[in-house]
Amino acid sequence: MDSALVLRLAVEDKRSPDGDEVTNLLNQSKLVAKLTSDFVDHPLFVVFRLLGLSEIPFIQDLPYTKKLLSYVNENISTPQGFSCLGGVAELVPCYNALLLEAYCRFGLADSKEAKAALHWIKSYQLFERDCRTTWRYKGVCKHGGCLGKVPCYIGIGKTIRALITYSESVDYTDNAVEELIDKGITYMLRHNMYQRLSSGAPISAHITDIMMPQSYALSLTDLTYIAGKRKLTDKPECASLMKLINNKQISENQWKIDYRYTYRGYMGFESKIRASNWISNLFPLWLS
Fold first, then answer.
1. Whole-structure pTM over 0.90, yes or no?
2. Residue of 83, 92, 124, 196 with fewest CB within 10 Å of its CB?
3. How far apart are CA 243 and CA 15, in angstroms?
4. pLDDT tens-digit map of 139-159
5. 3-class DSSP state for residue 77?
6. Both ends of the chain: CA-CA distance in Å?
7. Among candidates 101, 96, 115, which has minimal Cα distance to 165?
């Protein structure tokens, strides 16, 4: 088991390693060494590399992580939220949510950058069909229609996941956030978490695949996180999801990575050949 996962499991178990232990575990981690080994001056490289780094607790103090966060603050963060595709006009829900979650994991939930992203969600994100957003820029009309008559399911799922992480990252209850989580979960449950209303087929590519870390694609890892963290597993609408999760086991409480996204900056934590230490440890914790 990589020492970065040891740190993650300690945090998931509500334990706080001391400073020396954190330093030693980060220094020993082969995964941390890989994630901090290169840099490309490109917004999506920075986004995808930060998504990987954010899965590892206490990594925000490394010089490499600080460099990437500074890049986001200077080039991707806007007064309205995070936009890595070309300024405010190209802001889209999934990337805004992905970076909000990453900032929360870095201990930056109350930063002005995270607050701007959260304000955008509260003000403009849709969680239901046949609604209209007041967001006036056209980026949300591209990429299949993020906020159209039928809002993008990926954007809803990523936003709910980010809001759940936000709620666990702050020491107060934001009632507006809780209302949005409940609203989004109601919408997702109507789809049995991953199925089209019309046919029962998977809503999007890779929504039934296990991956680690996350990318812009909504995956079974994301759905497991949402269902587990919000105690949805016993709901009738989650029966198909739980069956899928159980059927994915290669042995008891052992799962493999199904899908490795490929793009500059993204680095899969493990291969698809054998059981994933990350997933096989995190799934049972989330679902317990």
1. yes
2. 196
3. 31
4. 655 555 566 676 889 999 999
5. strand
6. 21
7. 101
